[in-house]
Amino acid sequence: MRQLVDTYRGQVFGLCYRMLRHRQDAEDVTQECFVRALRSLRRWDNRREFQPWLLAIAGNRCRTLLASRMRQPPSSCLVDNLSDNADQIHEARGLAEEIELALSTLRAEYRQAFLLFHQHELSYAEISAALGCPLGTVKTWVHRARRELVARLVKRGVVQEMRDEVRRV
Fold first, then answer.
1. Among 120, 129, 161, 124, which residue's Cα sits nearest to residue 141?
2. Cα distance between residue 34 and residue 119, in whole Å
3. What whole-number distance in Å separates Cα of residue 12 and Cα of residue 70?
4. By three-state DSSP, how is residue 93 classified?
5. Residue 55 and residue 129: Cα distance in Å, rounded?
6. pLDDT digits (tens, 9 = 90+) for 54-66
7. Which domains occur in the chain, in start order?
8. Torsion over CA of 112, 17, 34 and 138, rounded to 10 degrees?
9. Closest CA to 126 of 15, 28, 51, 50
């Protein structure tokens, strides 16, 4: 087991850190990943490569942690960065609530891909690896999430509809 940890620790930690953007969480998930791999070693199909199986475990653990983070309202991030102006704080809270509501209505895979891309700043390739789906699918999910999110916010009157127009200077 020590040899497996020495061989794959860097790759597992790298994936976890890119997904979680928090060193301590990445270290915890890396350790948990190896514990889970050891417990599940009997179920591993040795005709397949070990590395993708191990990285899939790591990606799944990261997604679980990210999902628990997503349940926490992001509005505090928006509000903390504002000045003490009560109107701005009230407006930011309202906007954050509207965005959270709109996000909650998206299909789960659209929302997850969207948040990994925009909130956690993962690349399409990193999201593809983490979710175990094709790169094109990830791009489609993020695009559809954006489109549906804007449509919902426009429908609720939160933002004005933006048309593809060219401004003349």
1. 124
2. 27
3. 22
4. helix
5. 9
6. 888 898 888 888 8
7. 2-70 (1.10.1740.10), 79-155 (1.10.10.10)
8. 30
9. 15
Q: What Cα–Cα distance (Å) separates residue 115 from each residue in 36, 87, 106?
A: 26, 27, 11
Reading the block at residue 46, the tokens are 């040795």
Instruction: Identify whether the C-beta of residue 150 lies closer than 8 Å to the C-beta of residue 159.
Output: yes
- CB 71 within 8 Å of CB 29: no
Instruction: Count other Cβ atoms within 10 Å, centred on residue 43.
Output: 7
The alpha carbon dihedral of 54, 45, 109, 32 has a sign of negative
Give 11-67 pLDDT, tens digit per residue.
999 888 888 888 999 999 999 999 998 888 888 888 888 888 888 889 888 888 887
pTM for the model = 0.50
Question: In the chain, what's the furthest Cα-to-Cα distance?
Answer: 66
Query: pLDDT tens digits, residue range 73-115?
Result: 555 555 555 555 666 666 777 777 888 888 888 998 998 899 8
